[in-house]
Amino acid sequence: MLESVLIANRGEIACRIIRTARRLGMRTVAVYSEADADALFVQMADEAHLIGPPPARESYLQIEKIIEVAKRTGAASIHPGYGFLSERAEFAEACAANGIVFVGPPASAIKAMGLKDAAKALVQQAGVPVVPGYHGAKQDPDFLRQKAYEIGYPVLIKAVAGGGGKGMRRVEKAADFDAALEGAQREAQNAFGDPRVLVEKYILSPRHIEIQVFADGHGNVVHLFERDCSLQRRHQKVIEEAPAPGMTPEMREVMGRAAVEAARAVGYVGAGTVEFIADGREGLRPDRFYFMEMNTRLQVEHPVTEAITGLDLVELQFRVASGERLPFAQEDLPIRGHAVEARLYAEDPEKEFLPSTGKLWALEFPEGEGIRIDTGVEAGAEVTPYYDPMIAKVIAHGETREEALDRLAEALGETIVAGPKTNAAFLKKLCEAEGFRAGQFDTGFIDRNLDMLGVGPQPRDDVAVSFGAAALVSREIERLRMAELQKSDEPSSPWSIPDGFQLLGTRSVGMPLLVDGERVEAREVFSREHPGASTVAVGASDPWVDEEIDREVEAPHGFYVLRNGRQTLVQPYDPFDVDLEHMDEGGSVKAPMHGKLVAVFVQPGDRVEKGQRLAIVEAMKMEHVLVAPSDAEVAEIAAEPGAQVAEGARLIVLKTEE
């Protein structure tokens, strides 16, 4: 076994690798950026070394810095995790050149599978079916537009390099092709340093099914069954499960054999995933699946495979990298029960899943039979705009799919996160969705059911607001009591304490609040029927109705109220705390999150129509298009392309007609 390992990654996967390495008796070395100085994985490692500023290109993507730390600390191996340098052949080559074991496949295999066009040509020669489309080198926009016409709409534009949904656009009609191509190329360049794309036929009712493969350096290759990753949003996986619903033994054997052959074709070693798209219109059929790509690394969703096989894939990676043989053959591998994983993200489903950053004022996960939590953060940590906003992976295992989904839904309902908004309620509704439960789903399931899943603006939760406002009242009363006690040793007059004391009648006192940044007028209610008590009413709600919340979390600036998986921030309203720069609410297009202003498509004096593209903001490696809220004239461009902008910053000022 290897004596030590440097983890060239961060967050959840770094913590995951450290846990297994520690169990195997390996010394662990972490590298971190300035933004991660206090991160959980830095605390867990035996030693940790700073490698640069927060942007990944200046830290986690710096091969020379990471190799230098490995040499200086005497690390016997480097584990790249997933993302960052995990699929960079030059990183594997640099490790080999410096006598460091790369815990992953050979550089030749990474190169062979790193470009989707070349990979598809390679696996075709091995007899693996591929999606019809153009996979060539020519990138002229007019040529690609013509190829899309020949293939037939809808088509999918995909970055040749990389994955994770970046540089990918579905195009329904020819009129949208140019804008989609431009966006895909720009996103691919930013994410992978390579703007090239391919164009494929979009498969109707597509199911995304992938096969986990494992190979040693002695010619042994097996598959560890399949995972279904069809529940996606913007081509990014949301929920994954194993085994795939509706999978037949015949289909599993054919797909498994194809995946193994693809791995053999490139001399693969270690953990890898061969991803297929299946036409699910008539169920899963052996003659209707196609190779998409091979990820030459560990996958985010590997825990569901671990749950149904009982294997530790990171341990297997270390053993194979040490030169050991696989300890089993294909026929030795059973499937035990069913497992489902949900990706808990700091994002707001009510605002088109915009990333949500900030301090985690509370973070608690449930414990129970069949529940596993993989996380890289803890309460008090900061979700920054520099990296993927994943908070945790919540994994549930059960004897049946129904039991696993029940456990996952319950676990998500018991998860407490205060600070950044999360997709916890959305994920719970997904687990409970009738169509998904019945196995009637494909990659478009989420987009077709947004309303049912609570996506988009939701009504204000006045019950949550009432609880938060009542907490503010209690805190203010306690503050005034303490101030009064400190001011004099003499007993305070009850008339000097603003606790709602009165002799007769029922009255209410106006209370201005900020609720998730918007002004709300509440009222504190005092009643003869409830002597000595007050409550807060918002809207037309009955202030004395007995309601429940999940949790109330105090922060210096207010109270976070968690109810039914949603979070409401209630703060006192200060009329003197006004942001003068952003007072012109009606005419400003603002940054929806902290990020980089990638492009501006208009100039002062331009006339724009409602829904027209105005600008693009990039955050956490994904692009977000800003459109005109109404017909208007562009009055001002308030930020330059390339600038880092804060959430709420004014970008474009529009002048609407009276």
UniProtKB/TrEMBL annotation:
It holds the Pfam family Biotin_carb_N. Residues 1-451 form the Biotin carboxylation domain. Keywords: ATP-binding, Biotin, Ligase, Nucleotide-binding. Residues 582-655 form the Lipoyl-binding domain. SUPFAM superfamilies: Glutathione synthetase ATP-binding domain-like (SSF56059), PreATP-grasp domain (SSF52440), Rudiment single hybrid motif (SSF51246), Single hybrid motif (SSF51230). Its cofactor is biotin. This is Acetyl-CoA carboxylase biotin carboxylase subunit. Residues 120-322 form the ATP-grasp domain.
